[in-house]
Backbone:
């Protein structure tokens, strides 16, 4: 007896598919897959509006008097009734606290604030002469890489929110990171120059950075630049040993906001922790006071820029 093997029952659709040729299968259109969605770009970080005017004191060459200038400008603005903070950007080599006379009161510094190791108010040192003047010292134990652009921006914005009207940034010399961050957020710049060729040449390089590498430059705006001549000696200019005011102006193309005469009181004031602008009997102090007045929009004639003519009796008796 023969047993018939039953073939499996196939539905019409399966049967038609199974009966297709290899060529038919090859010609079948591939199944389309939907592309994975591209993640949306992160929204740009909103820019905090700074309420304070940021003023950087800068130069290309070291030893021209930037810190002396920063201290005197800050004191002058405070004496004019403005709420001022002066910040030392020279991380590792701080000197501003010495000239301001508050070196023994430094507990926290600029870097501590940026790294969240203290609050801004904990680090600010209130000046003993002006209740509307504060100092933010640099760190002596860190290097300049401890400063960050975001951290600096936050400190400047927080100071503005706290009612400060002027922030004076004391820049280190040269074009390294500390100097770059000191100038990056500036609204105005005081370029400190000694009337000698090397100082003027290095300052020309700083002007190039101010016009191309700052936050304002990135937005198509310009940092307002001012020229401050220090250690100026009309006698040496007359002898041809020093560049004149006109020479420096022509080379740099800047408006002169102040000419500080060479005077021994500058060094004496720095050593005593008393900014020279507070010395009412010093020609240098008077010249810094004039510079502050011009910053605030006042018109003042330049003083101490010509050789003082001796009178008859001075010549006679060798005075």
Residues:
């Amino acid at each position: 007896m023969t047993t018939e093997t039953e073939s499996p029952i196939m539905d019409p659709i399966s049967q038609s598919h199974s009966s297709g040729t290899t060529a038919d299968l090859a010609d079948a259109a591939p199944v389309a897959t939907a592309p994975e969605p591209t993640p949306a770009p992160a929204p740009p970080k909103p820019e905090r509006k700074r309420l304070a005017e940021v003023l950087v004191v800068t130069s290309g060459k070291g030893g021209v008097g930037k810190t002396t200038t920063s201290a005197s400008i800050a004191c002058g603005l405070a004496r004019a009734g403005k709420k001022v903070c002066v910040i030392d950007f020279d991380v590792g080599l701080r000197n501003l606290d010495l000239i301001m006379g508050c070196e023994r009161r430094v507990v926290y510094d600029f870097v501590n604030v940026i790294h969240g190791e203290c609050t801004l108010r904990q680090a600010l040192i209130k000046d003993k002469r002006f209740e509307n003047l504060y100092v933010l010292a640099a760190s002596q134990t860190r290097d300049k890489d401890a400063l960050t652009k975001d951290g600096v921006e936050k400190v400047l914005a927080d100071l503005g929110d706290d009612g400060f009207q002027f922030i004076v940034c004391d820049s280190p010399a040269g074009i390294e990171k500390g100097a770059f961050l000191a100038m990056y957020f500036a609204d105005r710049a005081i370029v400190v120059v000694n009337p000698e060729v090397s100082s003027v040449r290095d300052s020309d390089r700083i002007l190039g950075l101010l016009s191309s590498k700052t936050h304002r430059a990135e937005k198509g705006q310009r940092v307002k630049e001012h020229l401050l001549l220090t250690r100026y000696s009309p006698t040496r200019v007359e002898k041809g040993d020093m560049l004149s005011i006109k020479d420096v102006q022509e080379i740099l193309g800047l408006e002169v906001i102040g000419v500080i005469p060479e005077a021994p009181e500058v060094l004496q004031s720095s050593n005593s922790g008393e900014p020279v602008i507070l010395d009412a009997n010093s020609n240098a102090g008077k010249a810094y006071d004039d510079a502050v007045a011009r910053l605030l929009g006042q018109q003042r004639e330049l003083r101490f820029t010509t050789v003082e003519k001796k009178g008859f009796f001075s010549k006679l008796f060798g005075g």
